[in-house]
Input
Amino acid sequence: QVQLVESGGGLVQAGGSLRLSCAASGRTISSYAMGWFRQAPGKEREFVAAINWSGGTAHYADSVKGRFTISRDNAKNTVYLQMNSLKPEDTAVYYCAAVSGTSYYTREFIYDYWGQGTQVTVSS
Output
């Protein structure tokens, strides 16, 4: 079992930055693909970013490409999402997810483990 705990969310003005962290416990995540998803009020949960086990390959949703960066520190069992140039439409609950595997994955159903989410609110 892998337990995931997100942190770093909050309220920020448009154009600002936030760094989300996802701390894993229970197992080392060095052999896990990791992803970030988000769910805005009244909307379906959507893919944001994913990274492979080594951190050598990442993939982003078009809506965040060039503004968000996913990274991982396997020694700290932690994954990060650096969010820059935030927009009001980035407001959502952000979830971290994990699945055993060497690639990266963009489909929600593939992931086995999920955190409880952290709220990000961007004011205009």
